[in-house]
């Protein structure tokens, strides 16, 4: 059993709204959001870690490339626990790499590096951690996408209106790069 808290983001959450409080969350019971075809579950965010890091999972079906973006102030970790995920990264000098990550594989994307990813197998899952001096971006998912009360992937992809890509991301240290081209596969 986990305790539910009211927060400024949700009527009910298993994540306490203030820092410095120990807590436990059962599998899948974090703050959930749907974005594109994925389910994102946040287990710890800026409010609990004094804006030093966040911890979340992304689960999704085999699908399209998540749009290329960068975080000016945030480092991001990709750790694959299920399926397969192709991570595309471009360093600050313009050198591009891609790598197929399978369970147990790890990818690190430093701040200011363009990146994108694609779920290569159905039922893929990434454990993500983001950290940096600019705070954390976990509330980006529910603000650009849609909060999800139930478990599971969205019935239909949650694709934000084009204008939302220009307004929501900046406040969460996410900058989309729609014209970016990957020279890799």
UniProtKB/TrEMBL annotation:
Pfam families: Cupin_2 (PF07883)
CDD domains attached to this UniProt entry: cupin_QDO_N_C
Record-annotated Cupin type-2 domain positions: 60-119
Gene3D superfamilies per UniProt: Jelly Rolls (2.60.120.10)
PANTHER family listed in its UniProt record: PUTATIVE (AFU_ORTHOLOGUE AFUA_8G07350)-RELATED
Name this polypeptide is given: Quercetin 2,3-dioxygenase
């Amino acid at each position: 059993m986990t305790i539910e808290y009211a927060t400024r983001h949700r009527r009910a959450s298993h994540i306490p709204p203030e820092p410095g409080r120990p807590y436990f969350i059962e599998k899948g019971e974090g703050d959930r959001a749907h974005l594109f075809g994925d389910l994102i579950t946040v287990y710890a965010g800026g409010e609990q870690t004094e804006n030093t890091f966040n911890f979340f999972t992304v689960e999704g079906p085999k699908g399209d490339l998540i749009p290329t973006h960068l975080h000016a102030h945030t480092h991001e970790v990709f750790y694959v626990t299920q399926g397969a995920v192709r991570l595309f990264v471009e360093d600050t000098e313009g050198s591009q790499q891609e790598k197929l990550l399978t369970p147990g594989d790890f990818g690190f994307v430093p701040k200011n590096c363009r990146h994108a990813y694609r779920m290569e197998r159905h039922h893929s899952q990434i454990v993500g951690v983001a950290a940096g001096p600019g705070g954390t971006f976990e509330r980006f998912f529910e603000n650009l996408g849609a909060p999800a009360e139930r478990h599971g992937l969205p019935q239909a992809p949650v694709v934000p209106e084009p204008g939302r890509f220009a307004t929501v991301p900046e406040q969460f240290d996410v900058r989309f790069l729609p014209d970016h081209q990957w020279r890799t596969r």
